[in-house]
């Protein structure tokens, strides 16, 4: 059996890649994809703990997360699409009109 | 059986006030007839109540009737509202409603040309009458104070009736608004004292009902210093309302109001409220001999002080105003001297002194009623003169006696009465006042003070006769001067009729003393040891006639009065003595001091500018800088802080994400550090 530390380390690396992408990438689509990466990092942690402790609840949570993430992506893509229609760009550094 | 309806007496005028106030413009004479009817109804009810009270045997003991309901509670003690009827309140209600009725009738003529303003006038005088009658009928101090303040408000409103545009074009009246303000603010000083006195009483007795406060046993249980403090503070209220020294200067200025208002409020009724208050609180005041001495000193001094200023004034209403002050001083002198004698008698256990003190009380009350009649008469006469001449300056009058017969004769009766000419009303009461003062002078350690006050009182009697006849001769005798030449002649009947009625009373009211009514207006302890007004023994006519006409002092007063009338005749009618000789034609220092009212207005102004305005400036500074400053500073800090914090919302999703992640990392690091330091959860 693979020790749980491997799974957790893998999740943490995945999360950091996602976070890096969210913080640095100007393209809104890529940012959305990076958010998916971070969600999946959390999902891996869930599954790992569920398998490790034998508790099936963790796997149920993962299914929940995936469905919520699907909805979230649908909304996110719709926002990006509309922003593109208005501003002709998906660069989130230039979509800064929602401010003080 | 009528006594139970006492509450109607003040209620009817307030109904008139409401009706006239709302619908006066649609009624005849701006609601004047309704107001007169209301005053008449109040008078009739007061008459029935008084008749019932004075004739029914059921009220002899304890000498009062009171009934009340709970108004509100304060810390476990009840404040009530109700009526309290005894001889004093009966007398007050009777003469206040009667004189008010006559003055309202007179107002139909005097204010006849004021158009729409009549509604305001009649509504306000009706409200005023409520205040006066309510004051007389109140059963406790709080209720009394409410009516006291209603009167103060109406006084303010009516003094300022002309506002800034007087129809007669009198230059003195163009500041009626500031005269009203002055009257309001100066009396307010007294009212604050009265309120403080009420607080002290409430603290000491736990109730402000007359029956509780004036109960002998209750008063004995309270520290005598507390009683003295309460008495002095209450007397402060009386000083303000009755315009005694040093708060006397508002009354002459109050003459800026219509003459009917001067007659009603500033001669016959409201200024009597202070005298009434002292008479009502007599049982309290008499507990301390020094309080009564103080009352007497203030009264005697004011009598003299105010009379001096009437000597050379040229304004017909101002002369009467000073004379009012002076006569009010007499009333306080009588009450003070009577109370002094009574307090002394109670200390020494002397029945004789107590009886003499009760006589002083009678003198004060009787002078109050007499003065109401003759001073209302004099003011209404002066109003009649002003109405037909269009000026208040006596230098522009003269020779009106031929054109205005009724006014001149009734005013002569009033002048004789106030001067104390024998057998006129003023004679009896004024002589009784002076006799009480003289009586007090020969008793007790402080008697010498009353000797001085008696001398001042006698000199005042001389001055009163002089200035009243100076006024009469300058107005009605001699050659018609400027304004008198085109005077309209006698005033309408609605004005001359009340003059005739009042003249009868100004002549005859003094006889109540002779016909056995004096026992009603005395004060003493009854068999149960409780204070009560009335139920004294009537002395009868013979007693008083003997007492008056065997005392040398009476003849001295009569002689001085006759001398003063003669002097006024020679100076202002026959002109064989030039008044200019005495005052160096208006250049002597005394003349200037009197003409400037002893520099009292100046003093008031300086005080209010230097002290009042200075304090106000300080308060304003504190208000603006400290209170406003802290509130504004706080709100500014919040606004500035918000502005700055809102800059963090720069709309860049990267920044937000960075902050979120940075925050989570920080939390994580902190949690880890805590975990390491404390070694486990």
Explained architecture:
The complex is a heterodimer of chains A (100) and B (681). Chain A is mainly α and 100 residues long. Chain A has helices at 4-24, 28-53, 57-87. Chain A has a single domain (4-87), classed as Helix Hairpins (Orthogonal Bundle), CATH 1.10.287. Chain A has 3 helices and no strands. The model of chain A has no long low-confidence stretch (mean pLDDT 91). Chain B is mainly alpha-helical. Chain B has 28 helices and 4 strands. In chain B, the strands form 2 sheets. A two-stranded antiparallel ribbon of chain B has the order 1-2. Chain B has a two-stranded antiparallel sheet with strand order 3-4. The model of chain B has no long low-confidence stretch (mean pLDDT 87). The A-B interface holds A 19, 22-24, 31, 92-93, 95-100 and B 646-647, 649-654, 657-658, 661.
Largest interface: A-B, 13 and 11 residues
Largest sheet of chain A, in brief, is: none
Looking at the overall shape, the CATH architecture of chain A is Orthogonal Bundle
Low-pLDDT segments, ≥5 res of chain A: none
Catalogue the unreliable spans of chain B.
Answer: none
Query: According to CATH, what is the class of chain A?
Result: Mainly Alpha
Helix content of chain A: over 70%
Radius of gyration computed on alpha carbons of chain B? 31 Å
Could you tell me the number of beta strands of chain A? 0
Measured by DSSP, the beta-strand proportion of chain A falls in: under 5%
Give the % helix of chain B: over 70%
Number of domains of chain A: 1
State the separation between the terminal residues of chain A, measured CA to CA: 54 Å
What's the rounded overall pLDDT mean of chain B? 87
The secondary-structure class of chain A comes to mainly alpha
| Anisotropy-based shape of chain B | globular
**How much of the residues of chain B is beta strand, in percent?**
under 5%
CATH topology tier name of chain A: Helix Hairpins
- Please state the structural category of chain B: mainly alpha
């Amino acid at each position: 059996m693979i020790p749980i530390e491997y799974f957790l380390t893998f999740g943490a690396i995945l999360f950091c890649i996602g976070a890096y992408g969210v913080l640095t990438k100007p393209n809104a689509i890529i940012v959305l994809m990076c958010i998916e990466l971070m969600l999946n990092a959390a999902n891996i942690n869930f599954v790992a703990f569920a398998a490790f402790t034998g508790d099936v609840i963790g796997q149920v949570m993962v299914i929940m997360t995936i469905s919520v993430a699907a909805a979230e992506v649908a909304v996110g893509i719709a926002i990006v699409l509309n922003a593109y229609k208005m501003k002709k760009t998906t660069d989130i550094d230039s979509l800064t009109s929602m401010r003080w | 059986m009528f006594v139970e309806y006492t509450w109607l007496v003040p209620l009817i005028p307030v109904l008139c006030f409401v009706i006239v106030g709302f619908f006066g413009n649609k009624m005849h004479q701006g609601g004047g007839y309704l107001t007169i009817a209301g005053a008449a109804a109040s008078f009739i009810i007061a008459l029935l109540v008084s008749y019932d009270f004075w004739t029914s045997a059921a009220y002899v003991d304890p000498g009062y009737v009171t009934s009340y309901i709970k108004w509100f509670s304060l810390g476990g003690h009840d404040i009530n509202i109700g009526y309290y009827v005894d001889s004093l309140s009966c007398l007050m209600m009777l003469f206040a409603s009667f004189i008010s009725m006559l003055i309202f009738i007179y107002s139909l003529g005097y204010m006849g040309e004021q158009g729409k303003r009549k509604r305001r006038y009649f509504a306000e005088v009706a409200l005023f009458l409520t205040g006066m009658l309510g004051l007389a009928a109140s059963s406790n101090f709080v209720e009394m104070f409410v009516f006291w303040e209603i009167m103060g408000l109406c006084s303010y409103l009516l003094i300022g009736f002309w506002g800034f545009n007087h129809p007669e074009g009198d230059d003195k009246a163009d500041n009626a608004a500031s005269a009203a303000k002055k009257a309001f603010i100066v009396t307010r000083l007294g009212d604050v004292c009265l309120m403080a006195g009420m607080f002290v009483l409430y603290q000491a007795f736990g109730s402000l009902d007359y029956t509780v406060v004036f109960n002998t046993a209750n008063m004995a249980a309270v520290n005598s210093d507390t009683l003295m403090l309460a008495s002095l503070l209450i007397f402060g209220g009386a000083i303000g309302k009755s315009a005694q020294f040093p708060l006397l200067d508002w009354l002459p200025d109050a003459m800026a109001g219509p003459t009917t208002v001067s007659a009603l409020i500033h001669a016959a009724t409201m200024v009597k409220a202070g005298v009434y208050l002292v008479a009502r609180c007599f049982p309290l005041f008499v507990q301390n001999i020094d309080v009564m001495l103080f009352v007497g000193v203030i009264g005697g001094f004011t009598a003299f002080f105010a009379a001096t200023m009437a000597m050379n004034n040229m304004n017909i209403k101002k002369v009467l105003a000073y004379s009012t002050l002076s006569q009010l001083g007499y009333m306080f002198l009588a009450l003070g001297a009577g109370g002094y004698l009574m307090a002394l008698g109670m200390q020494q256990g002397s029945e004789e002194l107590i009886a003499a003190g009760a006589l002083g009380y009678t003198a004060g009350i009787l002078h109050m009623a007499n003065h109401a009649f003759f001073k209302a008469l004099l003011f209404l006469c002066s109003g009649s003169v002003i109405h037909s001449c269009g000026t208040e300056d006596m230098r522009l009058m003269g020779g009106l006696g031929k054109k205005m017969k009724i006014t001149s004769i009734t005013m002569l009766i009033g002048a004789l009465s106030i001067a104390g000419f024998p057998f006129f009303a003023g004679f009896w009461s004024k002589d009784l006042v002076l006799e009480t003062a003289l009586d007090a002078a020969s008793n007790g350690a402080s008697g010498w003070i009353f000797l001085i006050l008696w001398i001042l009182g006698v000199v005042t009697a001389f001055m009163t006769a002089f200035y009243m006849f100076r006024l009469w001769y300058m107005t009605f005798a001699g050659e018609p001067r400027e304004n008198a030449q085109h005077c309209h002649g006698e005033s309408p009947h609605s004005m001359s009729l009340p003059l005739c009625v009042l003249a009868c009373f100004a002549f005859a009211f003094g006889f109540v003393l002779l016909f056995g009514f004096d026992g009603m207006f005395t004060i003493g302890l009854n068999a149960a040891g409780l204070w009560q007004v009335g139920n004294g023994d009537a002395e009868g006519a013979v007693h008083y006639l003997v007492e008056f006409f065997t005392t040398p002092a009476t003849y001295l007063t009569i002689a001085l009065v006759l001398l003063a009338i003669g002097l006024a005749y020679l100076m202002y009618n026959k002109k064989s003595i030039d008044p200019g000789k005495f005052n160096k034609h208006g250049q002597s220092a005394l003349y200037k001091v009197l003409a400037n009212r002893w520099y009292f207005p100046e003093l008031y102004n300086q005080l209010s500018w230097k002290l009042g305005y200075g304090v106000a400036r300080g308060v304003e500074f504190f208000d603006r800088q400290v209170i406003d400053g802290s509130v504004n500073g706080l709100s500014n800090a919040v606004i500035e802080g918000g502005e700055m914090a809102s800059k963090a919302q720069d709309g860049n999703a990267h920044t937000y994400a960075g902050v979120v992640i940075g925050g989570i990392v920080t939390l994580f690091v902190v949690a880890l550090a805590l975990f390491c330091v404390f070694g486990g959860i």
